[in-house]
What we know:
The complex is a heterotrimer of chains A (315), B (331) and C (583).
Chain A: H1 36-46, H2 48-70, H3 101-137, H4 139-154, H5 157-168, H6 173-183, H7 186-200, H8 203-210, H9 215-251, H10 262-271, H11 274-277, H12 280-308, H13 310-313
Helix pairs in contact in A: 1-12, 2-3, 2-12, 3-4, 3-6, 3-7, 3-9, 3-10, 3-12, 4-7, 5-6, 7-9, 8-9, 9-10, 9-12, 10-12
Chain B: H1 2-29, H2 34-42, H3 47-61, H4 67-79, H5 94-129, H6 131-146, H7 149-163, H8 183-221, H9 223-230, H10 235-259, H11 266-271, H12 277-286, H13 290-318, H14 320-330
Helix pairs in contact in B: 1-13, 5-6, 5-8, 5-10, 5-13, 6-8, 7-8, 8-10, 10-13, 12-13, 13-14
Chain C: H1 10-23, H2 41-47, E1 56-60, E2 91-94, E3 99-102, E4 105-112, E5 115-120, H3 134-142, E6 158-165, E7 168-173, H4 178-187, H5 193-196, E8 218-224, E9 227-232, H6 238-241, E10 250-254, H7 259-267, E11 273-274, H8 281-286, E12 302-310, H9 320-329, H10 332-339, E13 345-346, H11 362-368, H12 374-383, E14 405-408, H13 414-429, E15 434-437, H14 441-450, E16 455-462, H15 468-475, H16 496-504, H17 511-527, E17 531-537, E18 541-542, E19 547-548, H18 572-578, E20 580-581
Helix pairs in contact in C: 9-12, 10-13, 15-16, 16-17
Amino acid sequence: MTVPSPGPATTVADDAPDAGAALDVPDARPGRLPGRRHEALYFALRNPKVVGAAVVILGLALLGLVGPLFADHGPNDYAGPTMQPPSGEFWFGTTMFGQDVWVQFVAGLRSTFLVGVLGSVVAGVIGMTIGFVAGFRGGWVDELLTMLTNVVLVIPGFVVLIVINTYLGVRSVPMQALYIGLFSWPWVARAVRAQTFSLRAREFVDLARLSGVPTRTIIVREVAPNMYSYLFMTFVLLFGGAILTAASLDFIGLGPTNAVSLGLMMNQAVQWSALHLGMWWWFVPPGLGITLLVGALYVMNVGLDEVFNPKLREM
Amino acid sequence: MRTYLARKATLYVLTFLVAVTLNWLIPRLMPGDPVQRMISRAGVQHPESIGPMVEYYEQLFGLDLPVWQQYLNYWGSLLRGDLGVSIWLFPSPVEDVILRAVPYTLGLMLPAILLSWVVGNWMGAAAARRKALDNTVLPASYLLTATPYMWLAILLVWGLGVVAGWFPVAGGYDFGRRPTMSVAFVLDVLHHWFLPFLSLFLVSLGGWAIGMRNLIIYELESDYANYLAALGAPQRLIRRYAFRNGLLPQITGLALQLGTVIGGALVTEVVFAYPGLGYLILQAVQNADYFLLQGALLFVVVGVLVANFVIDLVYVVVDPRTRTGLQGANA
Amino acid sequence: MNLPRRRWPLVAATAAAALTLAACSGDPIDAPEESPDVEGLAEARSLVSEYPREETVFTSGAQWGPPSSWNPIPQSGEATGVRGLLYEPLFSFDPATLELEPWLAEGGEWTDADTYVLTLRDGLTWQDGEVLDAEDVVFTVELGKVPDVRWSNLWTWLSSATATDATTVTFEFSDPRYQEWDNFLYTSSVLPQHIVSTWAETDYNSNANEDPIGSGAFRYSTHGQDRMVWERNDDWWGTEALGLEFPMKYVVDIVNPSNEVALGLLLQGGLDLSNNFLPGVQTLADSDKLGTYFDEAPYMLSANTAVLVPNATRAPMDDAEFRRAMAFAIDVDKIVANAYGGIVQKAHPTGLLPAYSSLYDEDVVDEHGFEYDTDEAASILAAAGYEDTDGDGFVETPAGEKIELDLIVPAGWTDWMESARVIAEDLQAAGIDVTADFPDSGAVDDARSSGDFDLLINNWAGLSNTPWTYYNYLFHQPVRDLQLVGNFGRAPDAGAWALVEQLSRTASDSPEYAQIMGELQEISLTQMPMIPLWYNGLWAQYNTSTWENWPTDGGDSTAYPSTWGGFWQMGGLRTLAALQPAG
């Protein structure tokens, strides 16, 4: 275990067909009609977990978007005296070089969101495509894709990320997100494959097939809608996972070289002995920011789970 | 059944070949010529002496051969159990360097993973049972899972190590001690081991608890549970069945985790300066040590493959649905 | 090639046993057998279960990986203390006086221009009881006849080394290079012929030399993944001959996990001397939590010069005026204050370390020196024809081409990264478009040796007995495909190289010496092949709770307090010998 797993989902990833149920997402049910999605929205807006988490996430996003605009100096500028504890002038204090921790924090939030969004989209798209195709086509296609998935899963992703980062050099946050995405899709592929697998066997798909509907149409019309909720939640988990992976990479000094991020802040704080010099204001905010954001994502996931899966609502 | 196993075995052999080849390839893609680095590290002042030294080391590491031959030699020596000579820790053999780090990593990871699995599952099951517990365990679990691991570790070092001074902040055992089989030494090792262990234990605890809780709840919704309830079976019995069924995927997860154990907890070892395998991998990358990196990656890959293979076998034995499912895949 | 397999260190195995107990691991790890050592020694060792704190000095800062070699021949990669505590050179060197002091040698002199006669002390012994005599010295020097031995270059200007009697060696030179010879005398360790002569010729660099036998004040005791332990040699020849007595029974050098961990250990009293770069140490020194050499800025002695290297094969860095303009544009004081918190010192315009301050040619500096002055930089640029013709705020070459330069420093070298950001900003303020970039350190190595870069920072010009090493670094010729020792900017020879060669052949007390030095300083300032920035410190911080009388400016002990490779004979040994138990 080199990095904390992206959410609880990775603790279960297997190509046994029913393993998908182990994910904390609902079994996709036949007969859910498009009209039910309005119902989902209705419940989502009344679910305190979803609403609360959304407020936290949007609030942090807003801070990341707007915060840097109000700063009168850059995150790496020497803005004031060195090693100052939080004060009215420097809300989060200053670093060893006199940089404003608050400005670094809001700028770091920006990178964190960027990594989350890009990383989860890359991983999600690859994972879902491979999972769908493997699960739906079966046969040698499945065999081949499963092998590919297994190879990527077996190669220690975090280590490869380290090597790639060193080799290609990570200059920018999008680059980092791309690399992370390229190595975090296997569990999505496995889970989606398993889901598709079980859906494909259900009666309504067979019915469609019997009535001569082309494969693609079956996927788009019958299989995919039944997995929308599932896919949405996968993205939420990937989003959090990408953020945590990026923070780990940044922390061991392999983050983007020309950017500010929350992980890099922690890396710097530790490298410059903030722990031993008692400069807690340097390493507490970035970690807290990530915890809040990822925590909110996970809580949202639970909330959505309840929304999509009515039985849980009764719990 | 037999064809299933044969197919699986082929798959694993193929994966192994690909992974080992990548292992060989990856370090060679890294920038920086290791021999050059060795020589510049020596601070040689006379370029006249550099030529012969470069030649000497390239020959020593077999880097003067054509690439295809390096690749074949790699397989050759791999099959002989020879992983080469470390460049960073020249002239130590790679297998020695790795074997020295492995005990620290295993000693840290195995207890952390096993204990957090046991405790996490127990907590998850308890949470699924009582609403009140659910309302405390679940948020706490999500908080732990969402915490960036290194932050948790930093806070532990800072709070319990630096500020309170209860635990040492670095190393495998006290630098003033000689390793002997004495009570004092063992206590000292445990003292150093505790914080890194605690951080790993805490960070994976939440995931297991959430997983177990959700699994049980899904099981409780399943048809057999409803059927049992309709028959008037006691709630305790139904829950026990649910727990058992829920345990299966959790075992899979545990096996996967144990497979990655050998890779070490890189970030942990960095924060706590714990002399394990993960730290070695990072150093190998930073010092362009091809051979050490290759060797360490090999350990990791073999670990994961073995774990996966064991899971496959266990599933065939434990869960008959697997077999039918896989046949279905070929239909 | 024959690489001996090291036995499993006890360290890891016992820890494993202790830990796997708790881990209920399926496969127990076999405890290794202690290999038979010198009679009785193993037994004596196993009696010690911990190192008594009051008899042990803990150091760190030199060793970044588990000790793996005790072979002094490659002069790199060996465990901390191998060259100094265990093996000894003929002379030691005092950076304060720039003088060599006899160590194994009793003395040495040039009997004529081409002949050097070295006299060894009487009664020198190796730790196994064998006599250390002139034959060992001749053997060591002649090892350089093997091409891949590091000092093989010696034999291009040395013609013979002969043991005239047991304590006298006569060296005949074909081309006496006095400065380089002095350098050899204190940097190279004398090797035991009776041991090393049994090694295969191909093994000289790769033999790990386990259980090493030296002549020094400390014996190899043991080592672990994370430490190297030395035990005092009570039969050391130097106790009497040098009058040096080491008060500590053990020296334990700790493998650095990282600088901040070293700081933690140092503050907790687990370390006595840290030679790590510890940012923020100025605040701790000011509040007397730690000791440093100076009690105010710069706190540290200077160990080497950090320079900005422009690639002279690329326009516009091929123009000496452009390079000079850059020198004026950089505010080194800001780097010293912010990136370093005042623990380094701004470099003298010549770049020569403070240890050579007696050699500074102030007239030359007055005429050609530089200081931070953005306007002056701009006017030098304008005078040389660099103007902002397209109005983007940055100058173009006289030919009207855009100038866009990258300044590279290795990712993760945080102090240099901070400094590079400041430099890029300053250069931009002067109208030169420079961006700081942080590739992997391997990529920086490649770029530097192959000449594929615009600007980079380097600091390989370290302290030695002679400024020749600095000028050899600055001006080295000829330029090769791979530049590994100096002149990374590949500047063509502007008349300096002949002077550098001449300097090496000139004795320090010769009247020509100062004159050559003056000429070299002038060329370095007018040609500016590299731009001196600041002096990296000889990082050293002390915890005085167990040991006191650490070297301080004007104190009882003033030795250079370092355990780094090559520094033991420049002050590290004297630092340890001067210590006294606290309280």
